[in-house]
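Schema walk-through. Below, the input block comes first and the output block second. Nothing else is stored per chain. Lengths vary across the set, and this one has 552 residues.
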Amino acid sequence: MRGFVALSWSTDDPVGVRTGRILRELAVAEGWRAIESRDASWVGVRGPNPPGVYSPRTGTLIIGEVFNHPDAVARAAEGDTDLDVATWYSRNRWGRYVILFRCPNGAVRSVFRDPSGSLAVHGWCARGVQIFASSLFEGLIAAAPPDIGFDWDRVRALAERPFDLAGDPPLTGITTVQPGHLGEIGGRSTPVWAAAAIAAAPTRRAAEARFNLRQTLDLCVSALSGRGAVGMEISGGLDSAIVGAALNAAGSPIAFGLNTRGPHAETDERRYALDVAASVGAPLTCRARDEVVYSAELFEATAGDPWPSQNGRDLANDLAVAEACREAGVETLITGKGGDALFFQMHTPLAFADLWWRRPLRSLFSGQLPGVARWTRSSTWSLIQTARRSRQTHPDALPPGKRMQIAAIASGLAYSSTCRRSEVVDMIHPLMAQPLVEWALRTPVPDLVPNGRERGLARDAFADRLPASILARQGKGDYAAYFNQQVAQNLPFLNAYLLDGRLAVARVIDRALMEARLNEDALRWSGGASEILAAVSLEAWVRRWEARRPGV
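--- output ---
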């Protein structure tokens, strides 16, 4: 997987010197390429499109890609502290990067992770060596084992809300720096960039928001795609079509378009994908997902980082995309991931509640009230009641629809978690870029879904670039029946893995409830595959990390 490792030790500590040498040799054997090697420190990168590294000033090492922010306001940081520099970068630059603030001997005193969170940062100290890495490999853990444990309350919370990735990770003994934070190993974590603070001051009108969206999206897509030909996931949905059109407008060639499908008719979006591919001049490869026999090895293979991987739990798609990209020889895969949160695809009465919060009387006579009622299949009276209750419950908070959007944007961190695809290609998600997220945060939810039109602002902003079939399409592929069938076909493995697993023993999951879900008839009539697969991902993660504990 694309990423970095940074090691440092004291030359006066024989244990640290020896451990540092062992870790360097292991890293090189695993495919990490040294970009800095000193007496007391070593930095390596790896993966498809390995991140670039440069030092803009003494004691500062930036790993990744950094671009000028379209709303940059200052030429240089006002102050020399780590916090001053991190704050300046958060306001005047964007990209996929981390900043290591280092002492003269190469030891890292603090790390800033860019607000998009594209590049992870995990750190610990062991056997005389300080370690920071974006992804972990077995040799690293074995040669310098962290003192790990589990925060079972956090694990339980993830079992209930698997995409709630804000806050502390469920693993103790390793420091994970959160996006937009300046952190230290086992020390303080200072928020430098906060979504709620940006959303607290909406400044855009609908017409301005449409214009700025187009400008900002084109800038982000052009910067992230680089100058060479790229591959792209073309699902047939609105979000990937918008990104593909932006690539086309920027003159970035799409050498490889990929569409995958399951065996059910409702998963087949080839008709729409072909329309998108034709409109941007991209060759399209269509792949059917093969049936997969579940196993512990398959799930645990992507469970080695301090956060459980939700990105690889759809095994059939993960394997299909990885193989297709390997055969095509592409190193960069652009996606439309993150668009549901950015453009507000969520069907919720809160899309009206936010207007009520801003303009209670005018909202009653707006097109938003009947529009959202039609969209959510609710009565106008129930929408008004929901809006009133939300105001009474949280009178001083952000509007409830905006809070929902912030949570949805944060859950997009799952798209950067380890999977088989990321071992083959550099997966880039332009719709999660910092300038676009800030655009969405500053745009009121009612403007994103005017009169209850799902992603209406985005549709209007790119109407002249998109095929008519995409503009007219309201839904998207439905994989619920497909996942239920996949789970039903693997019930013997799932029953043993979950009902006799670590989560059941620790009472993280309700064993009786899970047993009722792991039933072919229940899956056929009530569904539940999503909850089951989320539990499997968490189970695989716990087992992988328990096996790494010393003495196991």
